[in-house]
Amino acid sequence: KFDVKGISRSGNIVHVKAITATGEFYGVKAFAPDGKLNDVKGIKIFERKTELKIQGNPVYAHLKAIKQ
Predict the structure, then answer these.
(1) CA of residue 44 relative to chain centroid, distance
(2) C-beta separation of 53 from 62 below 8 A
(3) 16: closest CA among 31, 5, 30, 3?
(4) What is the chain written as a DSSP string?
């Protein structure tokens, strides 16, 4: 089991990594229905820190699978 966190930001894109118990970082990937491998990134839509709350939990960015 890994923690998944946004570790840096470039404009509206939040770079998302999986973090091991020893502190190693791994890129988060997703397979498209056609079998292609995509990067998972966070997308900031609003300027504020928290985009919205869902059942009391803050959402900091929307996750999307983006072509490499």
Answers:
(1) 10
(2) no
(3) 5
(4) --EEEEEEEETTEEEEEEE-TT--EEE-EEE-TTS-EEEEEEE--SSSS--EEETTEEE-SEEEEEE-
| pLDDT tens sequence across 42-54 | 999 998 999 999 9
Amino acid at 11: G
First-to-final CA distance of the chain: 25
Question: Mean pLDDT throughout 21-37?
Answer: 96
**Residue 68: per-residue pLDDT:** 80
Q: How far is CA 37 from CA 32, 53, 57, in A?
A: 6, 30, 29
| 50/65 Cα distance (integer angstroms) | 20
Structure tokens at 11: 């404009």
What CA–CA distance (Å, rounded) separates 5 from 42? 10
